[in-house]
Amino acid sequence: MKLPFHEFCIKTGSLCDECENRIKQGLNSNEELRLSKIFLEMVEKRRSLSDLTLVKALRKGNILVVELGEGDIERIGSDMGELIRSVKGRADTKVLLVESGVPAKTFIRQLSWPNKVLAMNTVWLPDGSRQTKVTLDGRRNPSELRALEEFAKESEGIDIRLEPTTR
Ligand SMILES: [Zn+2]
Fold first, then answer.
1. What is residue 146's predicted lDDT score, i.e. its pLDDT?
2. What are phi and psi of 164, to 5 degrees?
3. What is the CATH code for 103-167?
4. Ligand 1: distance of its center to the CA of 13 in Å?
5. How many angstroms does the Cα of residue 32 sit away from the middle of ligand 1?
6. The pLDDT value given to residue 108
7. What is the pLDDT of residue 90?
8. CA-to-CA distance for 164 and 167, rounded, in angstroms?
9. What is the structure's pLDDT at 92?
């Protein structure tokens, strides 16, 4: 399991200077520390999860986006429900799992879940930048879509516009 903090520090809850500085310098957050602890507890019950990587976690509106290592979503498999219940935290939080280091199209599909991606079209904007328009099936809360677009920009540096077919 790859976590942003030392296993010892996560388990004891008293951080060494190195881990403490990761939070102070903004490299990692208290949210990520909380999730690291949950991941460690889960792996004690399910050895199959021992290869998971926690890259980062970011709250955007009411969505907690958890970025894992490549292939981790498949690795979690049937333990998904339990993992999501454990990391959920506040009552109104939705948990979304995405993977780091995957092709942009895969990342966008993961980010759009539970909506399905019907089409992706990249357009050039007048200022020379690129934006990918992503057409989703069904409907989705617009503020959630804006939050996910922000996450894509901050996390992967990709400019996307998520547009559901039904409004
Ligand atoms: Zn430490």
1. 95
2. -75, 150
3. 3.30.300
4. 10
5. 14
6. 97
7. 82
8. 7
9. 87
On whether the CB atoms of residues 152 and 160 are closer than 8 A, the answer is yes
Pairing outcome for strands 117-124 and 130-136: antiparallel
Asked if 33 contacts 13 with a C-beta cutoff of 8 angstroms, the reply is: no
Q: Is 68 left (phi over 0), alpha (psi -120 to 50) or beta?
A: beta
Provide the angle, in degrees to the nearest 10, between the axes of the packed helices 142-156 and 104-112: 150
The pLDDT tens digits for 59-99 are 988 899 999 999 999 999 999 999 999 999 888 899 999 99
Q: How far is CA 76 from CA 41, 61, 65, in A?
A: 14, 25, 16
Give the pLDDT score at 47. 84
Q: What separation in Å is there between the alpha carbon of 9 and the centre of ligand 1?
A: 5
Which segments in the chain show pLDDT lower than 50? Answer: none
**pTM for this one?**
0.90
Q: What's the rounded Cα separation, in Å, for the pair 29 and 3?
A: 12
- How far is Cα of residue 27 from the mean position of the Cα atoms in its chain? 16
Cα of 146 vs centre of ligand 1, distance in Å, is 35
**In 3-state terms, what secondary structure has residue 116?**
coil
